Structures are given as structure tokens and as C-alpha cells.
Amino acid sequence: MNRADLKQLAQLRLREAKALLDGGHAPGAYYLAGYAVECGLKACIAKKTAKYDFPDKQKAIDCYTHDLTKLVNHAELSQDFRTQSMADAKFDAYWAVVKDWSEADRYDRTITVKDAADLYKAITANKSGVMRWVRQHW
To answer: N or C, where is the chain less crowded by C-beta within 10 Å?
Structure first.
């Protein structure tokens, strides 16, 4: 899986999340929307990977996480993230929704349409959505 694949996968998972949300399938929509952010952040990490450098083993292992906050750190975007959060209160509020996503949510059948719609909006909002910020870095 390379950077281009991860970017395409992020876009695909967002489209799938929207289709599931529109069809009333909230748990699947919620999971795929969050997974799209994970893929986007992993594309940011891939961008920082030098073509012929041998990767640091621990860093490579650490990047195999689903924790979005850790992925921001591994993508070396922490400072830009803090700057964005301080400059844009809406982005900060959206991140507060997005950061709670977990890969374990794929097993949660109690996620409501409101939960899924809130997450999808936090990710895709035109001006302050999390995915807009991620795309600036991938």
C-alpha cells in the first residue's frame, strides 16, 4: 500500500460512509468515516517516507496504529495541528468528535444515525472539516 493507494482509499471510504449514512446504516457509516481519516493520515506518513531510506523499525511498528491522535504525531503534523486548532475553533470542535473514533467501533451496533452524521460532518465540513486539513498534508 503506497501513498496514492491510501489517498484513494480515504476518498472511497468517505463515499461509502455517505452511502451507508444515507441508507440509515449508522454503525457502518461511522466506522468507515473514521477509517477514511486513518487512511488519510497514513498517506501523510507515507509522504514523509524517503524513497530509498531504510525505515526505523520502531517508527514503522508505531505507525501500524488506528489511534488518530498518534497518527497525527507520526505524520509529524503535531505543530501544524496545534496551530490549526488554535486558529479555528470549529476545526478544534470537529477534532473533538473525530479523535474518539476507534477501529473497535466496527463491532458497535449501538451507534446512532446522529452519531454517524456528526462524525461524517466533522470529517467532511467544507471549511473546517478534519479531512480538509488532512488533504493539505497528504
So the answer is: N
Count helices and strands in the chain by DSSP H and E runs:
8, 0
Q: d(Cα 85, Cα 65) in Å, to the nearest integer?
A: 23
pLDDT digits (tens, 9 = 90+) for 9-19: 999 999 999 99
Q: How far apart are CA 73 and CA 95, in angstroms?
A: 14
| CA pseudo-torsion sign 32, 68, 76, 90 | positive
Is the model's pLDDT at 36 over the cut of 90? yes
Task: Write down the pLDDT at residue 45.
Answer: 96
The DSSP code for 107 is G
Domain 3-135 has CATH 1.20.272: no
DSSP 63-119: HS---HHHHHHHTT-HHHHHHHHHH-HHHHHHHHHHTT--GGGGG-TT--HHHHHHH
